[in-house]
Each structure stands twice: as C-alpha cells, then as structure tokens.
Amino acid sequence: GAVVSQHPSWVICKSGTSVKIECRSLDFQATTMFWYRQFPKQSLMLMATSNEGSKATYEQGVEKDKFLINHASLTLSTLTVTSAHPEDSSFYICSARDPSERTDTQYFGPGTRLTVL
Amino acid sequence: DAKTTQPPSMDCAEGRAANLPCNHSTISGNEYVYWYRQIHSQGPQYIIHGLKNNETNEMASLIITEDRKSSTLILPHATLRDTAVYYCIVDTGRRALTFGSGTRLQVQP
C-alpha cells in the first residue's frame, strides 16, 4: 500500500511556542489529506481536512487560528500548532487518500507525539 | 455516517484464528467496510476493505454477510504482534474516516 510519513515523530516544546508537523505522501499525490488527534485512551478525532491549493476545512470546535494547516503541494501538508499549551499535548496523525486506487483507500502516517511543558 | 458496533475487547491464543465481528446494520449501498488496526503509539494501519464480496489479502480475510449488515475480520494465525485495537469503519472512501472505540485484541502466548 501507499506510504505516508510524518516528521517529527515526537516533539517536546515549551508553552507558548509554535510547533510544525509535516505530513508527506511518499509514493503518490494526494489532493486531500486529513489531520486527526488522539488523546490517551481515546479514539482518533478528525481535526481538519487539508486541500491542496485551498483553505483547510476545520471540524467544529477546532480553532483554525491555533492549528494552521498548509497544503502547498500534492505531497506535503503541514500542521502548525501555534502558541502551544499543555492541553495541546496529544498524538497527531495525518492520513491521505491514494486517488489512483479505485476505492480511495486512506493511509495513515505513523503519528507525531507532541508534549507541551 | 453508518455506525458500527464492535465488542470492546477479545482474547485470542497465539497461532489460532482471531475472528473479530462488526455490526453495521445501517450501511448504505455505496459504503465500503474498512478495517484498520492501531498498535500502541502508532498510526492506524490499513488491513482490508470490501463492498459486498468476501476479500482476502496477505494480512487477513473479510467476510461480509449477504445483507451487508455485519462482517467479520479473520486473522488466520494470530501472533503476538497482532495485539492491537481493531477498527471497523463503513464509509464511501471519499471522506475522512470516523473512528469508533474499536476492539482491543489481546493475543495470548
């Protein structure tokens, strides 16, 4: 199957700083990528849909000014957590659809664990 | 979105087949049944999906009932590395996936 990578795999930052997480589709072009977060002992929750060349669509309750998403190319989407606070500590996961597959299977990155001190 | 119902947890002996059930009684005609698993502290891993026919790949088999209201994921020879949370999701494949609580499969040595 297709491969999606994320960088970094983990990051620790101080409260008030910004953190950028990259999501790349390695062997396919993705016009749409999705960003999820997962808190301990919970399931994945969709944060936003990232569309190449246009603005991201955010889920209800997700602050678009805090979680900046840029999808500047067909293989890269970035999520920037601005002015991070301890409550933003979570596991952030991206996914992308491979449009070349008939049924648009989604593939997930390995995740980025963010810890805000 | 069609919703799914899965048992919260299951145990399986190493080397035996693991059969994970999923109910999706409100599935629509154009929705696929997808199975993913999440090993601790990793992103979800795609396993298999199907529309109405049974499917098999190198990882697992998917059995979908004729009325499509339920399905079973079969891991033919479970290993300790198959210990994970397994998610059954029904979707058209063109939207973000909605994850439920899944089934926590514990493979016992």
Q: Can you tell me the overall shape of chain B?
A: globular
The number of distinct helices of chain B, counting runs of at least 4 residues, comes to 0
Largest beta-sheet characterization of chain B:
5 strands, mixed
Alpha carbon gap, first and last residue of chain A: 37 Å
Determine the mean pLDDT of chain B. Answer: 94
From the N-terminal CA to the C-terminal CA of chain B, the straight-line distance is: 38 Å
Mean pLDDT of chain A: 93
Rg over C-alpha atoms of chain A, rounded to the nearest angstrom: 14 Å
Secondary-structure element string of chain B: EEEEEEEEE
Total number of strands of chain A: 11
Number of strands of chain B: 9
Structure, briefly:
Chain A is mostly beta strands.
Task: Provide structural commentary.
The complex is a heterodimer of chains A (117) and B (109). With 117 residues, chain A is mostly beta strands. Chain A contains no helices and eleven strands. In chain A, strands 2, 4, 5, 6, 9, 10 and 11 form a seven-stranded mixed sheet that branches. A four-stranded antiparallel sheet of chain A has the order 1-3-8-7, with no helix packed on it. Chain B is mainly β and 109 residues long. Chain B is globular, with a radius of gyration of 13 Å. Chain B is built from no helices and nine strands. Chain B has a five-stranded mixed sheet, with no helix packed on it. Chain B starts with 8 loop residues before the first strand and ends with a strand. Chain B is 0% helix and 46% strand. At the A-B interface, strand 5, strand 9 and strand 10 of A face strand 3 and strand 4 of B.
